[in-house]
Design brief:
Blueprint lengths: L5 E7 L3 E3 L7 H12 L8 E5 L6 E5 L1 H9 L4 E7 L4 H14 L5 H13 L4 H8 L3 H5 L9 H10 L3 H9 L4 H12 L5 H11 L9 H13 L1 H19 L2
Parallel strand pairs: 2-4, 3-5
Antiparallel strand pairs: 1-5, 3-4
Helix pairs in contact: 1-2, 3-4, 7-9, 8-9, 9-11, 11-12
C-alpha cells in the first residue's frame, strides 16, 4: 500500500537530495522556470521522505520541479513529507506519479519498471500496486528479440523504443528487421516512415518477393522516402513539360 499520510512543510531546498534523475526536456524545464519567476506555484508538489539518520530529505517524486526551483535559486519550497518507506515502495510511488501525472520520457519509465522486474515483481503486480493495467507496464519493457546492441544504441541516442517494438512485430525477414533497427537508431527511420511502411505492406503482393528484393524496395521507397518522392516529382514535371515541347 502507498503511504497516503503526509504533512505539508516548508523545507530548505539545500536539504533535499534526489533519489533519482530524470531526463528533463529543456522546453519543459523553461516552462516551469517561467511559472516560478511569474510568482506561480507549480501544479505538482515535491514529495519527500525524512532520512532517519541525517538532517536531510529524500526526493521521492517531483524531480522536474526540483530542477526548476534550483535554476530559480529558490531557497525554501513547500513539500509533502511522508514517512520513510522501503526502496521498493519509493520506486512504486515514483512510478505511479510518472504514469498518472508527469510527462516523463519513455526511457525514465522503462528504467524504473525494469528495476522492479529485476527485483522479482511481475508486470501484473506492478500495475495492480500503482493502479494501471498489466499492458500499461509491459509497454515500457524491451522485448528480448530486439538485439542488445540495438537496445544500447537506442538508449545512447534516445531513440523511440515504441517504434523499435513496432518494427519487431512486423512480419518481415530477420535480415530486414535488423536493417530497420539500424536505420531507426541512426535516425533514418522515423515514426512517420514506419507508418508508411505498415500501410505499404498491406497494399501490395510484397510477400511474393524474396527478402533481398523486399529490402531494396523498402530502402528506396521508405528509408529514402524524401529522395524517392523528389525523383518522382521531377519525373512528373519533366513528363508534363515534354507534352508541350
Amino acid at each position: 500500500m502507498f503511504n497516503l499520510q503526509f504533512e505539508c512543510k516548508e523545507i530548505m531546498l539545500s536539504r533535499i537530495e534526489p533519489l533519482y534523475v530524470e531526463n528533463t526536456s529543456k522546453k519543459g524545464l523553461l516552462t516551469k522556470i517561467n511559472l516560478i519567476l511569474q510568482g506561480n506555484i507549480l501544479h505538482l508538489p515535491l514529495i519527500v521522505q525524512k532520512d532517519k539518520h541525517e538532517d536531510k530529505y529524500w526526493l521521492i517524486a517531483g524531480f522536474p520541479e526540483f530542477e526548476a526551483y534550483k535554476e530559480c535559486d529558490i531557497e525554501i519550497v513547500r513539500c509533502q513529507v511522508q514517512l520513510l518507506t522501503s526502496d521498493t515502495e519509493q520506486r512504486l510511488n515514483l512510478l505511479r506519479r510518472m504514469l498518472q501525472y508527469e510527462r516523463n520520457t519513455w526511457i525514465d519509465r522503462h528504467k524504473l519498471i525494469d528495476r522492479l522486474v529485476t527485483e522479482g515483481y511481475t508486470a501484473k503486480e506492478i500495475g495492480k500496486r500503482i493502479g494501471v493495467t498489466e499492458g500499461d507496464i509491459k509497454h515500457y519493457l524491451v522485448h528480448p528479440e530486439i538485439p542488445e546492441d540495438i537496445v544500447q544504441l537506442a538508449f545512447a541516442f534516445k531513440r523511440s523504443f515504441p517504434n523499435l517494438e513496432i518494427v519487431r512485430r512486423l512480419r518481415l525477414h530477420h535480415f530486414i528487421k535488423d536493417r530497420l533497427y539500424q536505420s531507426l537508431v541512426e535516425g533514418n527511420l522515423s515514426g512517420d516512415k514506419i507508418q508508411k511502411l505498415k500501410w505499404l505492406l498491406t497494399r501490395t503482393k510484397f510477400e511474393l518477393l524474396d527478402w533481398k528484393e523486399q529490402w531494396e524496395i523498402i530502402d528506396d521507397s521508405v528509408i529514402n522516402y524524401k529522395e524517392h518522392l523528389l525523383s518522382h516529382w521531377e519525373e512528373q514535371i519533366e513528363k508534363q513539360l515534354n507534352v508541350f515541347a
